[in-house]
Every structure is written in structure tokens, then in C-alpha cells.
């Protein structure tokens, strides 16, 4: 197993190793709590993705949970109960003032998780074992989702009396084709398996074990790391833009984007390597 | 079989029963005409969904057709022919004036069917036997679609010389992933089976008979009815919003929505029940 | 094999025949170069689709590549290298001025390919053998995609150091349900087969050979050609509109559209034929 | 003074007269309460605009308040206090359930006022004397705003502890150019005069008295009533659409709209009259 | 007076001269017909703006009408009457088929006029004398509008029985602040003066005569022509984008745009000239 | 003069005092450099607005420049020249890699200035003396703009060879009615006076001196500080939302927003005070 990357040693709950050049493997690292998220965990999660996004030694990120029991069990309900925005003397506030306290709390949480989507490098999410609640919000921010056969997935929020607010309800209808299925799992909060996730297109590969799933992710990651980072990161940016905008707007944005990207050295280098049947090497981005 | 609900006894073509607490079963009730829609039927359809939406004794709606021959055969073509906006002395109008008569006619029809989508409670649509034309427009407004094995589906409008205008063309590209399939069935007006509908994700379950399909729907309905209505109805609202808006807009709307929903009693009640492994009961909404 | 259509005889790389009344079969006709696209090819491609769109003798278009080796191998890389916007004395320009030269170049290329999507008649795209790079951008503009079993598909652009800018990244997330799959193939540039394309819904039929795939396309085409062109073309327009707009905007646009379409002769003619069980014939549109 | 129109005699608070052919004058008719709005008033307001929109004897609407003391003083605060959604046994509801009661209440109120904007005929709003709070929400739904010199205007809601929710905050930034002014009057709730309203473009005419303001409105109304209703109503529709959509979307919608409007008899009739210097008469729409 | 530019000598109705380096003066040149637009005129109008947009010898365009009697009197009604899409044997078509003929006709007309807005160089429109109907559609596509004191303006379309469809209704609500005024002039078709146009912000300068108005336009043009074309053309692009998109989308587009524009030589050159108090010269774009 | 607020004492270039309860006065405090912005200044600017937004002792913010010579002279050009993202060994990067460095640089700058718009409390911007370049980007983020008579304004960026990218081009077309004026000042980079800014609605008040302008701002601020913060902050939020969204979306968002805001104590308190003619006091928010 690869050693932790020095540049990421200050995180308490985020473990970052590098299994191959330009590939970072991020593990949510709180296995005793099934990798559940307290506020401290999500603040670190946001920060580590910002750092990965800016780190020119990283071209692809693999995300998994530490340990065998869970990708993540979602919100740390006990921590949430004791450390609520309404604890202490705030109980007496009127509903408008309580809402005012809640909004930035939700915004911060959403914003930390969204950093994963904003990360300029492709993120491959490996789901395994317990993957419920926030696990779905998080995985919706990945580019490619892979699951181990034992993964137990659920959009669990309805069962704790709330509508999922950290991104599942905003993103799932856009990343899985069957709305009937999306509504089914979001409304009923029922478990679904890795195989079912594959059948509907939520994940694109299922592997026998967590280990083989991570191997598969690394195989993709190594391939992506060898390609032009200008091309790979531009492709991620434009696909995300395309999902959110009209075709006309996307084509226009794409033309502006490529009017500079095509001036980079990667395009001629890759094209020439292709004609010469050699393997190109790309400089950092 | 459960008795008709008194509050819904005034409808001529809408039969509402309650197979379980908080569950309403709505049947399009014109079996001799294959549950086809005349203007009176769609006006009742709009009104009944408005009433179901506001009725705090209802937390889930199951929709099916009465009888074994059809969910619905769609527009009542004969009624449409005799009761057209152009009948009588209006034949001599110029095209601009005819358009002026047609627009509110189409608006009213669209608006009645859209009431089903606007219903704040989840709607599970059970399709069976003949389910063509308007049947597709209607089912596109459901949250979860289930079919009996004998269902015969078709976006039939092209075959009567028009483009489907009551919602199929607006919603189908957003609720089924394969646009190639969507265009195929909408342009050719060909029949497709329950199995094909399942394979592309238009429906999420297929059952042997209408009876077993309805049983399956009731099983989901009973489960949904036992959950926090604040959570369930919020989830429906936010998924529908998410389908129509950018991720950024959806996250913002979600934060506002939950800034009040989280102040309800359901969230702590459900969370405490979860920790205590008891079954919570939720008050009306 | 049917003879070339006289009205389309001036194209060098576009071969148009008519295998059945109102059906046009367009072949990208540069088989020695694997139907690769130089600037002249894409200019012709844009023009031929504009002509097909306006030609009232055409109600459906089938698109394939000429020969057995390729639908198209995409950009003609050699032509692109010698005939670049930066060749000759433009090498010394600053990046802002180079971008200014590149933008209209990309715009023109996008615009030519987009003419296929704008064609008012349904386009059935038959993919076969080599179908990489620009082949995907092109097929994303089709209404219905069919593949031969031997098709080798790839969103190849990343491997030549750029982000696909002729439409794949703008359209693919909207026409295939599984974003995880879309990102996988766009980021890795890996090959995928006809069967995989079918499984994710990118194509809706796979046939044993190019010949049987084209036969299948012709069967659909003949069926579409026999139907009301007012209904068929309206359906295409409204589905494309629906993909790009909110449901509310689409319903409104649909009502305006049908307020004139319903005044045509096709609606009563088709409805009466339906009641009388006769086969209607529709006049040109 | 003209007699009340028989077709509108059933309203308690809406008085409709016809000062000229095809011109309806609607007065908010609760002068003893300064034309303040209780729920009954806004329900009637919504209904009367729906009726005016559909009435082919009406081509233009003038709106004013009855009596000399007020256009309207806005919400009837006393009625609102006694007839609140929370009165009686609903006080004990939790905030999520109270919100559930409030939302349809606000929706209904918004929807009744928005009927004025949806009215297909141009509406000229004559403001006079007290015109505060809801008066601004209402006038934002008019097409043309005219004021008497004595008009006292204010976006008063902040002073009763709430953000204006019946349309002022949604529409004012789109119908007056200076956002600095819009924010000033909305945040401070200060009074502003007819002259100030004219200077910033909120109203387009100011007249000495209510009587002369109404005269001016009638002059415009008579002029509009003499013109092609196809042209006038199309212009209103397209301007409202243009305010809410991108230019590209508006141009597309306009082309569809006019593809039927131009087939009406008004276009050739008006054009020929123009060439012949005669005055055309247009049939009902 | 400057001589016609050779590169633009092939137009029949478009006269292009160059009163100063990098400044083109385009005149609609059909003075005997009050510069009215037949189809041939609008086709030339679209083409000349495309050419001006691409011509690196042009950095600013001034648009006026030839002669003293009119900027333009709008549509050439007589030509329109004889050369209609419905002339000859097309009279017998049904309304759906007539609409099908009309739509591309309107599209083409819109598209030719919109070329003026798409021109990448700033366009200063000098309005004078008769400026009605299409004159407003055209001037809405300009960047800066200047009027001579004798200008007679009117959104005239309602008076010929139609809603303006070449852009006025789509653009005017976005480029003038007072919607009450916009609706007034569009619905009533009344004349308004240069002074009124100035007061509402439709034009930004009024001058005594056509000659002094053109002088003023030239003064601005000469100033713009001396500035960095990268900066000037980028500013136009981003302002047009900003008008049509949300602030968040605009900021993102701006960042991409400037990530290449700032790499040009103009930014350091202009900045250094500023510090050194010298006058920079910019190379062609 | 009021003393600096202790909570804001750590800023080097941001001076915050409190001239009245709940009113904060923020001064850009780098008078020797005409309050020009280096990176450190804009980072502080972003942070201070985030702190003001969250500070429940602040209900209104006044922004001005320190000293008499400038509100701000904009970008500190000398600092920008020495501390560029391309300095040192980065000069050799290709254009794609340079763009990659520039984008986050622009994003950070935009984001710091946008914090002012995101501040939940109203911001009154007092412009005076030199107010060019970035001064306009900044003031576009204010709610209310007031100017001293000696203010010299200019959208100066074109004169340093670039398109303004920190918000002016995105926001100005939305906050001033006359697009002809907006394009004039943005393209020509010319100076304009406080009086001109008032005439077009960019500012809503002009006062003789900086001192009287600040007095006027304080008068508004004191008034706003005395009102319900729930109402005032909700009004700001909904007006900003309204500017960026369709009316339909805004009305929906407003209903959700007020479904909790109306449950606060401010609404009944303000209403009762109104009826009782007493002055209400509102608790912190």
C-alpha cells in the first residue's frame, strides 16, 4: 500500500495516498464511525478537494471509504443531535430566526460536498459496503461511479424525517435516466444493490470485492493520468457545463474554451504522437 | 374491495377508494369507453387531483383505469369530433381567430392533466391493457410507473395526424434516458410492451397481472404512508424542481425549503425513533 | 441499389439516393479516406442537410457512411494539419489574435454539423464499422441511432489532445441516461461496442451487418414517410424543444405550435381514416 | 357615467363599465375601506380578469379604484388579522405544518393578481391618491401605468414586517430601469410621488387629477380598440414573453406565433386600408 | 465625402465608405423608396454585416440611411404584397402548410437583421427623419443609438395588422428601462420624437441635424478605432452575453474569455502606454 | 467621528466604524494609493463583507473610500504588473497552461467582489472623487448608489487593453435601463459625471460633497436599521433573485421564502405597532 502524501498529512479524516504517478487516492478515514460525517469531516472534505483541484501533481482522484464496513454511513446523527445550530440558548428563537441560522449551515454543508464536483480533475468514486444517505449526495458529485458487489445503497433521508438537501435531489434526476426509479428510491428510502445501481446506470461497473473495485478504478485512473491534462480537464468541464445548459449555450462556451485550449502544446503533441505511433508525455497543468 | 370515499362521491368518472390508511386509489372510471377522455373527463381529472393534493387524509395516490380492458385509450375521438371548438358557426373564422379559440382549449386540457404532476403527494401510476395516446401524457405526470404484463403502450398521436400536446413531448425526454428510444416511439407511434418500457426505464416494475401490479403499488403506497409526510412531500417537490432547474438553483431552493421543513416535529421524531428502534407516527400535513 | 437523386448531384462527398418514396438515403462518400472530414466535407454536410430540410419530396433521411470500412473515422487529421487557421504567416500572432481566428473556425464546423439536428425531417443514423471522434458528434444530431454489430465507437478526441468541441460534450449528457457511462467514454476515449451502446441507450437497435441495419432503418423510414408530415415534423420539433426547455415553457410552445398545426388537413384526414380503417395519403409539406 | 356591464353584475367589489366600444373600465369598488383587499376581493379580482380576458367584446381594460381617496390601500390588515390561515386550533402546529398552510394561501393570492398580467387584452392602470403596498404589486401587472398628480405610492410591505410577496419584488426589477431606485423604495418603504414615478419610468404619464388621468387612459384605450385585435394582443403576448426569455428564444417563439397570426384577415385588411387611406374595421377575436 | 470601399462595391443597396481609419460607414442606399426593405435589401443587409464583422480593416461601424428623407421607412409594403410566400398556386394550401412556408421566411428575415447584432465590431446607429417599423427592429441591434432632432420614430407594425416580428418585441424590453413606455409605443404604434427617445434612454444623444448626428457618431467611432480591438470587441461580446444570461453564468463566461484575451499583446501594451503617457498602436484583429 | 469597531480591527485596508446602532460604515482604507486594489486589498474586501453579512449587530452597511481623493482608482496597476500570475519561470508556459493559471486568479478576484452582493444586509455605496475601473464593478454590487457631485466615474478597462471582468459587464446591463448608454460608457471608457449617472439611474441621489453624501446615506441607513431585519433582508434577497430569474420562478421562490418568514415575530409585531401607532423594536437576526 502506498504511503500517505506529505502535502495532505494535516487532515484528520482525509487520507491521501498516491498509488501511481499523478493519481491520488482519497479515503474518508473514520472507519470506527462507519466513515460518518460530522461538521469537521465535511469541512475537511471540502478543503481536501480544493487542494486536490489545485495540485498540479494530481491528474485523477479515486475516492473510497477507509476500512471494509462502509463507504460512508452518511450523517453522523449523534454529532448532529448534540451540535445543532439550535442548541443552547437559541431554542427560543422564532421560526424566521431559526431559518436564518439554518440556511448558512445548509449552505456550508452543500458547498463542502460540491467542492468534489468543482474539482477540476476527474473523480472516480468507489462505493462499497454501507453507502447510504450522504453517501449518495457525495457519489452524485463524482464523474465515474464504480461499486463493489456488497454495496448497500439507500437515499436514506426520508427515514430520518427530511428531504435530502446536500445534492441528491438536485443531481440524481440529471445523472440517471429513469425518473421512475429515481423517485422510487428517493421516496421510499429503500435499499438497493450494486447490481440494481448498474442496471439503471447509476454506477458503470460492479466488481466482486472492494479490492477489485479499487483495482478497476486505478486502471481507469492510470489511463487518464497518461493523457493530455488539457484535454481531460477540458472534457470534464464541458460535460458538466453541458449537463446544466442548453445545447446552444454549451456550443458557444465550448468554442471559447477551445479557442485557448487548442493553442496549448498538447494538441499538436498528441496528434503527432498518434501519427508517429509513439507515446506522448504531457507537462503539468 | 374498499368502499368509495365519501368526499369524492360527486365525480362521475373518477372513483376514489382507500385501500389503506392515508392511501387513495383513484380509478379513471369509464370502462365501457375504455376509459377514454372527453372534456368532462379531463375537467374532473384536474379537479380530483387538486382535491387529493389538499386532502390531509391522503398521503399517497395510486392511479389506474377501471376494468380490465384499458388504463385509458386516450382521447375520446368521437366526442372530440362532435364537440370541437370549431363546430357550428365558427367554421368560417380565419386561421388567426381559430388559433385564438384553440389555444385556451389546449391550455385547459394541459392544465387539467398537469394537476396530477402538481399534486403534492406521490402518485403511483399502474398501467394495464390499452394504454395509448393520452395514457402516456398522463403517466408522464406520475412519480412512479408500474405496469401489468399485458400493457399495450403507444404514443399514438402521430397516427391521428397531430403532435402530442398534452405533455408527452415536453416530459418524456426528461424522464427516460435514451433519446433514441424516445424519438423512435414518438415518431413511429408504434406499440411497445411493458417489458420494453421496463428495459428503457419508463416504468420501474412489471407484474404478471393488473391485480398483482396494483398490489405492488399498494405495497409501496403503504410504506410511503407510514413515513414523515414532511419528508416525503418535500422530496417530491425537490426532485421535480431539480429536474427543471440548474444544480445551483436547486441547491439554493433546497436550502430555503429545508430551513423551515427541518423545524417541523418530524425530523427529531424520526431521528429519535431511529436511534430508539421504535416506529414513529406522524401527524397530518 | 437506387440511383443518385438528380437534385443532389453537385456534391462531391455527399451521395443521396431514394430507396423509397419520400425517403432519402445520405451517404458520407469518401470511402478511401474512411469517410474522414476535411473542411470541404463538413461544408457539404451542412449544405446537404439544409437542402434535405427544405425539400418537400423528402420526409425522412437515413444517414450512413459509404463502403464497409467506416461510418466515419472523424476529423481528417492530415488535412487539418496542413490547412490550419494558423498556417503560413499567422504563426506569429499573439494568443488573443489566434483565438480570434480559431473561434469562427470552430463556429463554422459546429454550425455545419448542427444543420443535421436542425433538419426538420427525422434523421435515422446507421452506424457501422469505424465510428469514432466526429462520428459521435454527428450521430448525437440524429433522431434515431441504429448500429451494425461490427461498429467500433469511441469519443476519441481526448487522445488527440483536445476536448470534443463539435457537439458531443454538449449533447451526450442530454441523450443518454447514465452520466457515469458518458463521463467514462468521454474521458477515457476508449472503444465501445454496438452492444454496449445499445445497453446504455445510445443506440436503439443493433443488427448483424451494415446491410441489415440499413434495412431496419429503411423499414422505420418507410413507416414515417407514410404518416402525416405535419404530425411527424411537429413531433420532432417539439421533442427537441422539450429537451432544451422547462416543462412549462415547452407546454406553452406546444400550444402555440398546435394552434396552427391542428388547422391543417392532416388531423381530420388521419382521424377519419382511423375511424374508417382506411389508409390516408398526405399532401406535401 | 356609463352603466355597469350586465355580464359583470355579479361581482361585489368589481365594477365594470364600458365608456366606449370594446373598452372596459374596471374599478376596485370598496371605497369605504380605501379599496383594500380581503381574500374575497382578490378572488373576485382574479375572476374578473379571467372573464375580461375571454370576453370578445372587450379589447382594452382600464383599471382604477372607485372613489377619490385611493386606488387601493393594499391588504386589508384587519381582515387579514382575523381570517388568518393560523387562526383557531391551528396555532399549535409546528413550523413545517404552518408553512404547508401558508404556501397555498400565498399561491392563491399571487395567482389572483397574476391573472391581470395574463389577461390577453392590454390593461391600462390609472393610479390615484393612496396607492400603497398591494397597489404596487397590482400595477406591476399592467401594461401601461398612468398616475394622477395626487398619487401617493409606496412599496409598504417592509413596514408591516414582511417582504412583498404578491409580485412587486419579482416584477419591479424588470419593468423599471434603475435598480438603485427600485432597491431604495422597496427597502425603505418610503412614499414616492407621481412625478418621481414618472421620472424613473414606473408610470409613463402624470395628469392633474384622477379625472384627467382617466380621460388620458380612455384616449389610449379608444385608440387601441380601433386597431387589429390580432396585432394588439399578439404584441402584448410577445412583449411579455420577450421580458422573460432570451432574445434567441423570443425570436423563435415570435416566428411560430406569427406563422398563424399572419394568416388572419387583419394583416391584409390593415395593409390595404393603409394603402387606400381608409379606416379598417376588424372582426371580433 | 469619402469614396466607396472597393471591397463592398458589389452591393446594390448597401453603400460602404470609410470616413476614418478602421471606421466603416454603412448607408442603407435606396433613398427613392425611403430606404424601405424588400427581400433583396434584407439579404444584402445580412451579408454586409457578416463581411464587416470579418473584415480586420474595420473596427467600428456607423449605420445610417442614405439621403435626407429617411433612415428607413421599414418594410417595402408593395414589394411584400406582390412577392409573398403565398402568391400563385400556394393560395390553396391549408393553414398548417402555409405556416410551414411562413416560418423560414420569417426566420430568414430575422436572421439577416440579427447579423447586425452579431457583428463583432461596435455598431453606432444614426437615426434621422422617417424611422419607423423595421427601423426600430434594426436600431435595437445597434450598440449605441444617436438621433437627429427631426427623427420620426414609431413601432408601426400594429397599424399594418401584425405584431413586430423582426426583433423589436424581443429586444426593446431589454434595452429600455421603462416597460410602461415600451408597451405604450408598441401597442399604440404612435409616433415619438428624438427627444422622447432620449428621455427614456432609447437613444443616448440627439443632435440638430443628420449631419451633426453623423459627426457625433464619427467622433465616437474614431475614439473606438484607436483603442485595443481585443478590449473593445471583448467588451461588446461580454455586454451582449450579460444582457441574456444570469450574473453567475456571465462571470464564468467572462473568466474563460479573458483567460485568453489577457494573453494578447494589447493588455501589456495599453498598460505600459498608460504608465508612460504615450499613445499605443494596436495590430489588426 | 465614530471609533473603529473592535471586531474589525484586524484588517489592514478595511476600516469599519459604526455611526449609529446596527449601522456599519466600511471604508476602503488605502488613501495614499487612491484606495487602489492589490490582491491583498481584494482578499480583505471579500472577507470583510462575509463578516458583515454574518454579524447580527449589523443591519446596514455604508461603503465609501477613505480620504477625499478617491472612492477607488481601481486596480493597483503597478502591483498587478509585478505580482502577475505569469511572473518568474511561468513565462514559458503555453497559452493553455497560462489560461489555467489565469482562470482561478480571475475567479478569486470576482468572488471577493461578489461577496458584497451576497452580503445579506443592504449596502449603500457612496461614490466620490475618483471612481473608475474597479470602482464601477464594486458599486454594481451595492443595493443603493449615492454620489458626491465631484465624482469622476469611468468604466476604464478598455483603456488598459482589456474587457472589464470583475462584474461590470455582467451586471450593468441589468441595473441601468438604457443599454445605449451602458454600451457607450463601457466601449469608450469615457468619464461621466455624478449628474449623468443620476440622469440614467445608475445612482439615485447626488449630493454636494462627500460629507453630505455620506450624511444622506446615513439617513437611509438609520431608517433601514430601525425596521424589521426579517423584512429588510428578505426584500434584498427577493429583489436580487427577481433580477436573475423569470417572474414565475421568482413568485415560487418568494412563496417558499415567506412561508417561514411570516412565522417570525416581526410580522405580527410590526402590524400591531402599525395599528397602535407605536414604534416597534425588533430582535437580532
From TrEMBL, chains A, B, C, D, E, F:
<keyword id="KW-0007">Acetylation</keyword>
<comment type="pathway">
    <text>Lipid metabolism; fatty acid beta-oxidation.</text>
</comment>
<dbReference type="GO" id="GO:0005739">
    <property type="term" value="C:mitochondrion"/>
</dbReference>
<protein>
    <submittedName>
        <fullName>Putative Enoyl-CoA hydratase/isomerase family protein</fullName>
    </submittedName>
</protein>
<dbReference type="InterPro" id="IPR029045">
    <property type="entry name" value="ClpP/crotonase-like_dom_sf"/>
</dbReference>
<dbReference type="Pfam" id="PF00378">
    <property type="entry name" value="ECH_1"/>
</dbReference>
<dbReference type="GO" id="GO:0005777">
    <property type="term" value="C:peroxisome"/>
</dbReference>
<comment type="similarity">
    <text>Belongs to the enoyl-CoA hydratase/isomerase family.</text>
</comment>
<dbReference type="InterPro" id="IPR014748">
    <property type="entry name" value="Enoyl-CoA_hydra_C"/>
</dbReference>
<keyword id="KW-0443">Lipid metabolism</keyword>
<keyword id="KW-0413">Isomerase</keyword>
<keyword id="KW-0276">Fatty acid metabolism</keyword>
<dbReference type="GO" id="GO:0006635">
    <property type="term" value="P:fatty acid beta-oxidation"/>
</dbReference>
<dbReference type="InterPro" id="IPR045002">
    <property type="entry name" value="Ech1-like"/>
</dbReference>
<keyword id="KW-0576">Peroxisome</keyword>
<dbReference type="GO" id="GO:0051750">
    <property type="term" value="F:delta(3,5)-delta(2,4)-dienoyl-CoA isomerase activity"/>
</dbReference>
<dbReference type="InterPro" id="IPR001753">
    <property type="entry name" value="Enoyl-CoA_hydra/iso"/>
</dbReference>
Amino acid at each position: 500500500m502506498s504511503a500517505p502524501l506529505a502535502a495532505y498529512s494535516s487532515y484528520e479524516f482525509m487520507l491521501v495516498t498516491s498509488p501511481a504517478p499523478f493519481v491520488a487516492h482519497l479515503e474518508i478515514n473514520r472507519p470506527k464511525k462507519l466513515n460518518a460525517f460530522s461538521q469537521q469531516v465535511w469541512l475537511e472534505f471540502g478543503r481536501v478537494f480544493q487542494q486536490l483541484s489545485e495540485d498540479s501533481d494530481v491528474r485523477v482522484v479515486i475516492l473510497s471509504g477507509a476500512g471494509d464496513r462502509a463507504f460512508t454511513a452518511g450523517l453522523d446523527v449523534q454529532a448532529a443531535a448534540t451540535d445543532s445550530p439550535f442548541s443552547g440558548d437559541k431554542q427560543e428563537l422564532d421560526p424566521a430566526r431559526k431559518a436564518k441560522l439554518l440556511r448558512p449551515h445548509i449552505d456550508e454543508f452543500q458547498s463542502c460536498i460540491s467542492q468534489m464536483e468543482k474539482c477540476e480533475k476527474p473523480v472516480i468514486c468507489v462505493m462499497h459496503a454501507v453507502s447510504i444517505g450522504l453517501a449518495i449526495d457525495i457519489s452524485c458529485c463524482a464523474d465515474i461511479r464504480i461499486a463493489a458487489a456488497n454495496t448497500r445503497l439507500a437515499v436514506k433521508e426520508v427515514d430520518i424525517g427530511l428531504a435530502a438537501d446536500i445534492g441528491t435531489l438536485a443531481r440524481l434526476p440529471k445523472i440517471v435516466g429513469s425518473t421512475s426509479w429515481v423517485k422510487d428510491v428517493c421516496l421510499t428510502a429503500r435499499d438497493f444493490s450494486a447490481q440494481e445501481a448498474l442496471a439503471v446506470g447509476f454506477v458503470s461497473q460492479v466488481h466482486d470485492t472492494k479490492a477489485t473495485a479499487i483495482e478497476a478504478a486505478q486502471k481507469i485512473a492510470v489511463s487518464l493520468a497518461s493523457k493530455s491534462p488539457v484535454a481531460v480537464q477540458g472534457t470534464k468541464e464541458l460535460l458538466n457545463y453541458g449537463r446544466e445548459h442548453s445545447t446552444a449555450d454549451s456550443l458557444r462556451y465550448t468554442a471559447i474554451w477551445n479557442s485557448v485550449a487548442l493553442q496549448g502544446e498538447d494538441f499538436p503533441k498528441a496528434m503527432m504522437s498518434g501519427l508517429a505511433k509513439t507515446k506522448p508525455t504531457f507537462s503539468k497543468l
